[in-house]
Amino acid sequence: MTKGQAISLQKNDGGSLTAVRMGLGWQAAPRRGLFGSRTREIDLDASAVLFADKQPVDVVFFRHLVSDDGSVRHTGDNLVGGVGQGGDDEAILVDLARVPVHIDQIVFTVNSFTGQTFQEVQNAFCRLVDETNGQELARYTLAGGGAYTAQIMAKVHRTGAGWTMTALGTPANGRTFQDLMPAILPHL
Amino acid sequence: MTAELVRGQNHPLSQARLEIRVSAGQPVVAGATLSDEHGKVHGVEWVAHPGAPTLPGLEVSRQAAAAHRLAVDLGAMPEAVHRISVLIALPTGVGGPVSFGGLAAPFLAVTGLDGSEVANYTITGLEAESAVVALELYRRQGAWKVRAVGQGYAGGLADLFADQGLPEARQLAAGINDAVAQGLARSVQAPRTTDGDRTRHAAAPTLGADQGGAAAQGAVPPPPVSPYGTPAPGVPGQPPASPYGTPAATDPSAAPQPGSTTGGPVDYSHPRRQTTAPPPPPPTAPPAQPGQPAQPVAGDATGWSMDERLYNQVWGMFEDLARTMAAYRSAVDFADSRMEKELDQALSDPRSRIGGQSDAAREAARAKHTQLVDQARTALDRDLAQLTAEADVVEPALPAAYARWDNPVWHGYRVPMEIPMALRLGDLHLPEAPQLRIPMLVRLPLERGLWIDSGRADSLDGSFTDSHELKRLAMESAVAHAARLLAVYPAGEFTVHVIDPAGSGGQALVPLVQTGVLAGPPALGAAGVVDVLARLTQRVDLVQMAVRGGAPDALPPGFDTSEQLLIVNDFPHGFDDRAVNQLRYLADEGPAVGVHLMMVADREEASAYGPLLDPLWRSLLRLSPVPDDHLADPWVGHAWTYEPSLVPQGSQVLQQVLNQVAAARTKYT
Questions:
Q1: For position A133, which CATH number holds?
Q2: pLDDT per residue over B280-294, tens digit each?
Q3: The complex's ipTM?
């Protein structure tokens, strides 16, 4: 998946998706220098902002793990990143069937809470998984990250009866999702 | 087909999960010993008895009773076990009969889980025996069979265990008798901790006073696959290597037996949840039609027992309803605010004031609003239909403790053997879905006292209830709650005291007084207040001292170890300053040692005490005698309308249930 690419979340057989997971994984970058084997802790945080008509109405992040309506759930804060490769270190589960009817867009973001830029983060990725069968629908790599501390990763939005995912991949700077709001608004 | 066995006869067993029902004319102790292919019992941890009621695949009752149900799961029996001997014995030292000679012949039935009898056996011809090996379940060529044994021992359990080759026979028999006679382990409750939920599944039936390390080990459920590979936390001083694989060679005097209450351990585990055997699989919903939600099934939640599954399911329904309603409300709120904004815009835009443009814009805004609200309503109705269908299957499946008084389960009421997990205090609902009632379940033993507020005169539907009527209703719901508590605890394990200084609750208290389930008549006047409070305060002091000193068996002989509930009507009538202080002390310290408060009071009437009593009111769970929306859920914080669980008008069910409670109590004591 590349920036700006849109993927419809309709299933091939015509049925629409009911539950998707936005996974975020990363590895702490090894520090150069005398104690080269030492790694520095990097805390990335995944957040999801729920919009109704371009107004933010709810947010799911490490301090508010479940949206009030219960449709969007964060699996919990991971402070150090993954030790192995490939697994999700933080995940946000979206039960699309239960998302309140006025919510028409959900934007997923990643912030570096500890302040490192993505240059220092290895193997960072974001992916969208069909939660019902574990199939990976889309994968977006944060590779080649520049000197940014945040990224607006993707959004899922209503189209007709179903949902569509659009990769955004816009770099930004900020410690939590609040700092990103000005950067998010143009994408709605 | 039920096989009626005679002594020595055997019968094949086709099911792995069985129940063995024991009935005798007198309270008896039921237990079981496990032995290997050579008939050898490897040690005290191969014996299931009231002090250590759970072994893998086997659970016996914790107390002496005239009727028992032993749960057996042959599939969960370790390979090493080739024979299970089911034994019954008369408890000694409690003033009962000393031999089976003069008693009705004990009867045992082996049944499937559905209650169908596989085999039964009546033990006849007993004389001086006070302990009997009644049945044997044994492996024969890979299959299990049952044999009627009926081998009695005049020397009681000690002889029986000695005959089975247990070196610690005498100590074990003494320990069992102690556990039965004191019944202590169950009623002194440990203070709840935040991780109480985790420790609920503690593997250790009892924790010795001198084994803090092992206690931590017992706090996580061991993997159910090989329970015999984990050290039994109840046996201190044993090497951590599998105690089941090696004959117990430890010095019996140095190793207190598991489960006996001598040596001072207080049983902190819930009597019901310490099974290490894997729980039976939950019922699963039939596969759903494509595009349709699955048909709801009662008990379709996680848990180690049906009780726990239903409890979790009810809480799941509670959360789902809260969140579904939050989704609906936020959508409607959003539609409202958007329409308002758009209407304002249409009004303030000078261009739209000309001609029909303004009307059109307003029309459009209203249409958008209607459409969104309709969509939200559709989603809500879909979710409500699913939850209603679930409630329709769950409600009839609830055990008595969770069920409404009009549930038929109350008509088949039997005095239970175990404390249930939770208690229903009433129903909760939201104004958008008044027909969908969520049972309000609180965990037992109670963690907070209850306050039935008789002071609010404005009910939800606007109907005026005068204060006299409200007091009557408050007392009535207090009696319903108290009766329910009495009914769901095993016989003699819950005691209710009443302070009714002015005698104004007399009418409502009739069901409790007439059936004789109260500890004594309701205390009247200032003297009555002083007397009851003094007794309960002393009790709290004693138990606290004993627990803190690690010597719960140092309590005076004949000490009543049941949980206590004190109902206080008309507070602060009849209370002087000293009595108020004692009441506050009970509210603070009581719950941890099994003494609970139920205040039936109007806070206004105690306003003379000023902020002094604020902590008291805050510490109690406030309930209303009439529907009132004062309770908030823990997820979204909706205001839920609480309605107490009352006995239907004209129903005799309360009377019948309390009669049984009273009868069981006389039998038990």
A1: 2.60.60.30
A2: 666 665 555 555 666
A3: 0.82
